[in-house]
């Protein structure tokens, strides 16, 4: 099993780093080959540049994007670890998917080019319920993940939320780390497609494949 971990946090003292340092050995202990992408440490260029967008037509990717695409193809599962900022993922994580899953590599208007992959995402929040539910923060993540991962063909989209992280006690944090391991254990314990997707992505792709719905297309001039 090949697992690509995409880690998006700038601070080594974060709880996200604690999650990273916990789940990587846990997945390796179950036999996974794990590659970690620490987007800040690798200085991933989070700007969509003209040449990046042109690649939808030219299929010529920058060396940086090409390397990430190779690793995405290598992976059976992607694990993401990040904090929630303003109800969403950090912009530089979104930029990774914008650039790497771009039309022609990931997105293709007909259900996606990255079939039979899975994503397992762990998110930390500063706030707690009922605020998070009332502010639609879980829904926001789920809509976003549905629009990214089901549109490129992923079969499973699994999410795990950790609330109130900055004020969590040591005991609560220890429990969160146990839950983080249980969450990634699903990569081994649940079959491809068993978790399924969130939102309407799967239905939309089915309608497109059956010719009942046309995906909007984007024309880019060379
Ligand atoms: C720019 C910014 C925006 C934030 N927005 C939210 C938010 O919308 N909802 C929330 O629950 N916490 C928010 N937070 C708090 C972080 O999510 C929280 O501190 C973090 O998840 C704690 O985990 P960490 O130690 O891994 O950073 C925000 C923090 C920052 C820096």
Main features:
8 helices, oxidoreductase, NAD(P)H_dehydrogenase_qn, five-stranded parallel sheet, binds flavin mononucleotide, Flavodoxin_fold, alpha/beta, Rossmann fold, Flavoprotein-like_sf, 222 residues
Please describe what this structure looks like.
The chain has 222 residues and is α/β, with parallel strands linked by helices. The protein has a single domain (2-209), classed as Rossmann fold (3-Layer(aba) Sandwich). The protein contains 8 helices and 5 strands, in the order E-H-E-H-H-E-H-E-H-H-E-H-H. It has helices spanning 15-29, 50-58, 63-74, 91-100, 131-134, 137-150, 170-189, 201-209, and strands at 2-7, 33-38, 77-83, 118-124, 156-162. A 5-stranded parallel beta sheet has the order 2-1-3-4-5, sandwiched between helices. Helix 1 runs parallel beside helix 7 (170-189). The radius of gyration is 17 Å and the shape is globular. The termini are far apart. The structure holds flavin mononucleotide. Flavin mononucleotide binds next to helix 1.
